[in-house]
């Protein structure tokens, strides 16, 4: 692998490490706690299904991004996942203490919300490329590879 390929791998791993292995492992080891958190938004069995879907996304999509296998589609799914989790679970507008001096749950959630949107933007760069020309390639062949390592 060339030095450019190694750099690409490092950058891609930097984007996905939060999900695979970190968040996926946390959901696995603390499954009951993850389901309890999901049930705050999705009651009953839907909370469990949400966590199982999240586990699938957090394991399979990063592997696609790292290996270059349908990486544009995997990155698009990760972008949607990040945006959805920001809106569903980082609801900074609810606590009502955003402008309170000192500690604020709302501001903490706000920074997490922005982090999720920033990650979504990073994943969209994989989907469309830095110059945006990859959008045509993605639309023409959504399950194709961007060949990130020069292959």
UniProtKB/TrEMBL annotation:
It is found in: Membrane. The chain crosses the membrane at residues 6-25, 45-67, 73-93, 113-135. The keyword Membrane applies. Keywords: Membrane, Transmembrane, Transmembrane helix. The keyword Transmembrane helix applies. GO terms for cellular component: membrane. It comes from the Bacteria. This is Putative oxidoreductase. It comes from Methylobacterium phyllostachyos.
